[in-house]
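INFO worker-7 received task bundle
INFO bundle size: 2
INFO processing item 0
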Amino acid sequence: KQNIFKDPPFSKLDLISCRNVLIYLEPVLQKKILSIFHFALNTPGWLVVGSSENPGLASDLFAAADKKQRIFSKKATASKQIFDFAIGPRAMEKGDGRGIPKGAVEAPNVHKEADRVLLGRYAPAGVIVNDNLEVLEFRGDTHLYLHNAPGEASLQLLRLAREGIAAELAGAFRMGKAAPFRKTGLLVEQGGRLREVTIEVIPLKVPHSRERYWAVTFESAPASKEPGPPRGKGGRKAARGPGNAWKQKLAAAQAHLQLVVEEKGVAIEEMQAANEEVLSSNEELQSMNEELQTAKEELQATNEELTTVNEQLRRSNLETVSQMNDLNNFVDSTRVPIITVGRDLRIRRFTPPAEKMLSLIPADVGRLISDITPRINVSDLEKRIVEAIDSVAVQEENVQDKEGRWHSLRIHPYITVDKKIDGAVIVLMDVDVVKRSEIAIQQLNVELEERVQKRTEELTFANKELETFNYSVSHDLRAPLRGINAFAQILSEKYGDKLDAEGKDIFQKIHTATLRMAQLIDDILSLSKLDRKDVRSEPVDLSRCAQTVADELHKSQPERHVQFEIAPGQTATGDANLIRIALTNLLNNAWKFTSKHSAAKIEFGSEEKDGDQIYFVRDDGAGFDMAHTTDLFGVFQRLHSTDEFPGTGIGLATVQRIVHRHGGHIWAKAEPERGATFYFKLG
């Protein structure tokens, strides 16, 4: 440790840093420490103090190099401080207990001592001064040339100079600022005698120093016995007397006055230059003030912007805190086990239900997911997480826990706001009820398939029996009808002329009944064949088919006045034969139920509704009451009597079955005596 007050200082230092120490000391101690620092530093040397410190008490020792950074340089000035350091315990310690050996003292340097003695005896007396003509060092005996004037103590060279050389010394110093200058023939009175003095001013070049220094030397001839007059031309002595002394003083005063005048002129020029510099500086300062004002306004605008930004940040922080609170409450209140992991498969966060399901504790945050033993039966969990991250696709699987309950394991990629994949989210959904329902449904489906298969076999067998029955009925019923019809025909041919009007009417009714019965048998057989026939898929021109049926109807009853309006370009896809049968039945119905009108109109076309093509057959015939719509498409269901409109009651049932076989449906709208419209859509 180094005590800067008591211990001797280090020397030959280039830099001393003493920050925030001087402010705690009294001015006396500050000045003492600054003198010690001046002694310890090289020339040049640097002193660094704190931002609140300033070596103002030692301005003669240190010059400011950088006021802002508080860096000061050592001045080449002799320190006036007398140091008194007590010998501390360390100085008194004995290395081996025997004290300091006698031969330990270094022998004196003879050469240095000789130089000191000879320089002191033969070198001229002089001083070292700085740019302000302050004496920094005295060399030799200078009392013949310099003396302390009464009043305040000063080291100013011109104030120390004796009468007779002060004025010449100022002129010599002015002439010798740049190069050595020597001035001779100066007279100094001492003890009633005159002494001739020569002064010389020599500039000193100190490396690495910003200040300038000069050496001023004094040389004198032996003093004369009394102040006599100087010798004139031809070796004669000038007249003695007090007038000569006053002449010399007057000449010296005139020289001094001339020097002062010249210095004053130089000073005036310097003041004018300084004035111009001050004016320029004022202009610069004014410009700087304007710039500062502009900068102040910009700073105020920036402060306002910063205030706005701070307010926005505050609101954003409040929103973020609110969102975090919402998220925390959402995560804490959810009953779904959720775990988030990073790309390194380390756990980031999990919901409370995940603690029980996956045997987690809060300390597991940051652990690898592979270090956890979950309570679910899942293999290659780490591999599935990596696949979800790499493929950016959801990995899903149904797993069971240790208790046998089913859960849906879903692994989603963790996608950030900037669309980067930064891990995965593992979600476990309890699907035990759904899974068990699926299992039960699968079992029911198996049972249902077995029942359907059995029912299909039964229906197939029933269809075969029905087909056999149909052929039997067809054969067994047609034979008696053919017999009745044949006998009725024979009876008509042989005994027709013998029958009266009532007999002929009965005979006609028998013939009509046999024909109707034959037609009914044909319709029943056609209807039964529809369910067994395979439906083909092919393009069908409905407009052409409708036109063909309309032509046939006109040929069958040419005396009727019926107008057909068939829209062109009507097409569909289905079984052409079945669709022709359905369309024939619908147009026959329209033809039949318009027979009571002297003039009728039948339309066929289509319209689009909700993206579907709806076909229709419309007439302006008898119509029907919509209350009986439910009986319209039933087998043997008729809304009009046979005497009014003949028929078997199977036509519309046949149409409905054909439309259903094509995956469509049929419906109707009508009003009594205002016609009917049948709509149908094919799948």
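INFO item 0 finished
INFO processing item 1
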Amino acid sequence: LPGYPGTNSVQTAITVVQDLTPPTLVKAFGSQSLDTVTVGFSEIVDTASAQNAGNYALSGGVTVNSATVDATGTNVVLNTSAQTTGVKYILTVNGVKDLATLPVAANSKLDFTAFAFTPGFVISEMYLGIGGGTLVTDLTGNAKYINHQPDSVTALFALDAPQTGGASPGTDNYGRRIYGWLIPPTDGDYIFYIASDDSSQLTLSADESPNNAQVIATETGSVGYKSFTNKTEQTSLPINLKGGQRYYIEALQKEGGGGDFVTVGWTLPGQPVATNNTMVTIISGQYLANYVNLDNSSVTISQQPTNTSVVQNRPAVLSVSGMGAWDYSTNVTYQWYRDGAKITNATGATFSIGLAQLTDGAQYKCDVSVPGKTVTSDEITLTVALDTEAPKVSMATSLANSAWVTVLFDELVDAASATNIANYTVSGVTITNAVAPSGRAVILRVNGPVTGSATVSVTGVKDLVGNTMANVSVPVVAPTYAINFQITTAALVSGYQPDYGYVYGLQTNGLTYGWDMDSTAWTRERNAANSADKRYDTIIHMQRGGGSVWEIAIPNGDYKVYLAAGDPSNFDEILRINVEGVLAVDFIPTTANRFIDGMAAVTVTDGKLTVNNAPGSSNNKICFIEIYAASTPPSSSPKMTVSLQGGTLTIGWPTEAIGFKLQSTLVLPATTWLDVAGSEATNSVSVTIGAGNQYFRLKK
């Protein structure tokens, strides 16, 4: 530096070691065009020897026409004659040298698999940070696009790329290219539609070659998602296609700012030109295909399905779990089979039968796949046993001084007998009406307030196969905590605290409860005519992007938990909900039966009761929850009371001894005691007695 004395650095020595290691082959892979192979070497190679096509040979009669070293100096791209999709080839290399003129080992070999044409998906390329222009030419004229340098490459399983990030404004200043091959189902004239924000264009080839693609529809501004029919330019002319033939298809989109998406739909031969958006169907993966490198595809089954036994008219749930990887994703797909035949729409890791029938007993298995590769699970047996037991009362509930009682059964019951008020009595009041909001619960409307000491007697209620209950009596109990899940604008339900979807914490009512994530956006009020009352009309989604775990702070101890799930306006769920790890709800709704009421006996040990989605659930929706502190067990053996009227003996015991089972025998000492059906769910049973002695005891 000027004004400072000069100085010298410390001397150092550079030692150059002679390269004595020849190059080796490290990779070889094909391409979608099926006429190139990229060969990777362990080091930079000599251009002259590496670009000598005679130094390479391929099995299967494929010839190498030319060889070009790429910019890395370690990769060589071979141009070949046509390869056959999905076929494994052996590459043999001789004479290629490194910069020290050391050649590869004689007859060095690598195998690779030609890219496989695989149905089910298209490829989406994203070009980020290319400016705020909104014309398609702002994409196609950008250097990134021209030099094919996408920032990300993913798979789409329909010609549909919704809002990035899941909500507006999403990603800005990008361009997108979606491409693949269309395989129409039948011969005839097809009409195509495109919708996007911002601009887009749709091209279709007259055959499978991208070189013959022509623009058939455009969007030069922006429209709403799935708004296919706003402008004439969005709709193609009728295009005659052959069923089963491959046609190259491509959609380009350019986004400036704000909302963003691109989606492509069609109408099929014989359908009219769409005049509204509902007439257009988004093109799904079953009509699309692309190429994958099978050498990058792998799939395994991490959990096999197991033999399963259920009782008739109960849910049957079969599960499998797979892991996989392929060029664009780690997602796997599933397909279930019954007795070797594909089950329509059984394409999830879980296959559920809502009400298993005797005819559902069969052999089941599942294919687990990634594009190009499939493994098949173990074949298992589903056994469905005949239902021979009458329904039991799980509990009867009411809030203090309310004019209703809910009776919860342990299985689905016949609606006609379950809503026949002649089959019930509630002490101290008269029943005026009975409704069944779900297959397991019946709400009894009464003419006055229900007292804390009330009991309900039930008889004659049948299950779905006709098994009929004998008379039982159970006490009416009130919940310790009652929470209704609802939107903030819905009317409050008397006796229930509202949950509006807030994050877990101290609420204004003094209780501490809530969700693991903000769920206020996923509360609903349906105002549906088929809701039995407001509790069944309000819901919170548990699997739609908000919270999936709900908790309430309560003292440690034993509890019975009663909850209702479903939706009066939809039946698109597989309802499976855990309480403290115990499956409380397990049901698949139908048009006729859209709700399920469930119960679980649980123990809280961490100061919080936890409710979450059980494995195999889909689109869970929760309506309300009631929590009952378990009764204090009797300090000594419970005492029975008896009364005889005619040939009917009524035996009772204290309510705190509910859970004990009444047993009988004809002789003492007895080697065999017979259970009195349904006695463990009540504290009073009436039995018919005959001549001779009969002895009874309570046992737990």
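INFO item 1 finished
INFO post-check item 1: DSSP finds five helices and 56 strands in the chain.
INFO post-check item 1: Residues 431 and 521 are 39 Å apart (CA to CA).
INFO worker-7 idle
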